[in-house]
Design goal:
Helix content: 10-25%
Strand content: 25-35%
CATH class of the largest domain: Mainly Beta
Distance between the termini: 16 Å
CATH topology of the largest domain: Jelly Rolls
CATH superfamily of the largest domain: Galactose-binding domain-like
């Protein structure tokens, strides 16, 4: 029983190590898409998912697609309650030019704004997995073929090495006419969502931010609920998801020293 308690203490010690201030886990400026169509290869093929193209966790050290693409995915493929876009060119959520400019200070490289030309240079030039194109677009919801509301889900996955807490969502939004409300919901399993708030979009570009909760998880889901009617066209850009990221596995030397110390306490207690 005592050894089990020591093992539990060790797991908690490991899981609680290396906690940092909030960082950009996954960000999308949607610049991979071509204006008008859900394509990242100049129109050769359509796709209803999009990997994030910004992350402070990108081991390459730039604001590029390299390793950062593995930390987030936008879903329009029916997964996690998202709308399943049929990919027939009549997409209810599609990229339109020009992009928005607010919330552009959340890039992974200091001094380089999301969606800017300097960011595009980094995205197109990152070694190993460079982004194939950089387009100035935002994502707009239309009524044709869309349910009411149209659900778009952003999945964040930290993998097995990290946990995240104090999650936060930021983005820019506007309409091309009138006003439109966009609902924001949060989930840790991609099935059950809790409403977080509503972004009231108007014709003037605005920045919106929502604290999503302090849950400790390696995978979370943020769902946008749009209502579009082909005239109002609510649109978003520069979506960023931040969290306090904690390393699950410490440096090998730290882990061994911690385990040795706990085992030593166990031996000492048994002798007493």
């Amino acid at each position: 029983m005592k050894m089990r308690a020591l093992a539990t203490a060790f797991v908690l010690l490991v899981a609680g190590s290396a906690q940092a201030a909030p960082i950009l886990v996954a960000g999308w400026d949607f610049s991979q898409f071509s204006p008008g169509f859900l394509t990242t290869d100049g129109g050769l093929s359509l796709q209803n998912t999009l990997a994030s193209n910004y992350s402070d966790l990108d081991a390459v050290g730039t604001a590029g697609l390299g390793n950062g693409s593995g930390f987030g995915t936008m879903h329009l493929d029916g997964q996690f309650t998202s709308f399943n876009t049929p990919l027939n060119g009549n997409d209810p959520f599609r990229p339109l030019a020009p992009g928005l400019t607010l919330n552009a200070n959340m890039a992974a490289v200091a001094g380089v704004a999301m969606g800017s030309n300097p960011a595009g240079t980094l995205l197109l030039g990152e070694a190993g997995a460079a982004q194939s194109q950089f387009q100035d677009v935002r994502m707009a919801a239309r009524g044709t073929g869309a349910p009411n509301p149209l659900y778009v889900v952003f999945e964040v996955d930290l993998g097995v090495s990290f946990l995240g807490a104090s999650w936060r969502l930021d983005f820019a939004g506007k309409t091309n006419s009138s006003t439109s409300n966009v609902g924001v919901a949060f989930s840790t399993d991609g099935v059950s969502y809790a409403a977080i708030g509503t972004a009231g979009l108007g014709t003037a570009e605005q920045a919106f931010g929502f604290d999503l909760g302090a849950t400790l998880d390696d995978q979370v889901f943020i769902r946008f609920a749009f209502v579009g009617d082909n005239t109002i066209l609510p649109s978003i850009d520069n979506v960023t998801i931040k969290a306090e990221v904690t390393s699950v596995v410490p440096e090998p030397g730290t882990a061994l020293l911690s385990l040795a110390g706990l085992l030593g306490l166990g031996v000492f207690g048994r002798r007493r």
